[in-house]
């Protein structure tokens, strides 16, 4: 399965890389796009996979949104009916039956593990129960989510249920977006946000209770929070902690917190037929589409949920599905195709919850496994894959990889079909693959990703010996050492592994360590304002858009922004020009730039500015001396340095792995290929492409990254060794030639 699996993935990836896949997407998208709600047109910019919508799409979205609002208004006219129905809905959830038992148990115990099927009401109800039981008098009730989407959507739902506006009594907080106020009692947030809060408030005094939701997901931040919260519980006796999970890990969690009780919410699930593929599908997108059509044509009413890997596959599936259904002919009843993934704009995410008189086919990432519950799903199609962040020690960085799921995932996915009645689940892989080739559980993120961020945070909390930190499943020692090395290399840790002044400053920013280093060095050099803009631009998925019918025009518009020596500076240029034009929406439209993205950039920048001020760091501008800006970039990214080897072809200076300029880079576009560059990240397809590249002076590399690079005094050559070898070879050849000449001469004289 794994082997076959990777072949499929490769095939899809290769196709994608050669542009065929994308082309297919473009071709199919055109007129069909109107049939599909929420399918984004891709820009041809491969830079980031997670795209945002273009204008035409926004317009459509806002229309749909407008209609939804209208609908809401009519509903509001019978406010009484609405509140009654919300009350009824709440009371029909399985958790409601055990509400008082749960509250009683919580009076006796400060920590509880709460287990319940997805959809039983854990996420939306537990916070409200705690509030209703009076806990909120002593502080806020926090609820953590591993995913941003879930935090936002659930907060909206609970605000609705409590009949208040989002951001008042009920709010949410995710990185760079705080939608809470003084009056907030129930706060949904990502686990990363709560982890950061422990940095400033180690005992979490503002909270009376925290619910760690979706603990079975074992996200990196949740795993670290486990350790941190265990000590908070030890210190604070007026603090309640509830850990919620799908069944699997519950006992383990309970043991970790000192054998605390496990509370079971009795499930109400219906049988689900499991159907396996006879052979594993070669192309899971195609296989899923075929299966969905077979269901639509041959099965009773009921919605379909397809589990895909990520945005690109989801979009391809939606387009292909719409196309094939159209091909089948008019006798087939219409369907509503709905994608859902984390980067989808939130108003479109909300669509999956709206009722529809047509059959809904939802195409989702594993976000729909447990984080989001959609009622009415009767059929599940499981491709057997998901995207996981995996650390690649050779490259020294994380990358998202399409990976076979675990049995636990597969069973969760299947369970989605049996919530409201009996259902069926089609697995696009064989039964033997499920039994013998899938792992029982997914490896926790902490054991497979880069930990530099977390290590820096723990160090700044004063935890010196990371190996003895209370991890539930400790990360591999090598990974910790690797992260320590990265932080030392950036100057955040000293030779003894203790946090430095620079490291402490870096830890204050919710950014990857290289980015925060770049910002702090930027301030020292006098260009923090410019670096803040660049860092903020890097935080959004995509800046430029490229509508199919105006591809050339939009390419030309993008090229006008190009700064020949740097993609980072190109971003800065875009942001500054937008600012000079009064941050106008029209300007964005005229220049093929996503207005939504730039608005987000501005918000993020504002937040960075606040942190700078809190940390008494200066906000300074260097005007047009952008060489200094490049130097600050180099200070954060010297470890990602490459040297020119051929046209557009570079080789990584440390790993010696070839790396290429991406065709969308400003450096590529203008045919200017500097000898040395640093890059933000690498994207893998058939080739390795450097993403967001900046030309650097080799002397900076030696100055800023002395542990890797040096300049040989005599020859002033950066690659002294190579040069020396060359010289020696030349010398030997020369001596040999001399010897030959002398010999020849001697022979002639004889
Ligand atoms: O957390 P758990 O999976 O146990 O359930 P939940 O997320 O609290 O969901 C309980 C109910 O609320 C489900 O029936 C959902 O359909 C509904 N819900 C909703 O309508 N809109 C949301 N944004 C979230 C939940
Ligand atoms: Mg939940």
From TrEMBL:
- Key words of the record: ATP-binding, Coiled coil, Helicase, Hydrolase, Nucleotide-binding
Identify the domain of life.
Eukaryota
Question: In what residue span(s) does the Helicase C-terminal domain sit?
Answer: 288-462
Q: Where is the composition biased (Basic and acidic residues)?
A: 41-50
Region annotation Disordered: residue ranges? 36-57
Domain Helicase ATP-binding, chain residue ranges per copy: 103-266
- The residue stretches assigned to a coiled coil in this entry are 724-750
Similarity annotation: Belongs to the DEAD box helicase family. DEAH subfamily. PRP16 sub-subfamily.
- Protein name (record): Pre-mRNA-splicing factor ATP-dependent RNA helicase PRP16
Part of the whole protein covered: 380 to 1129 of 1197
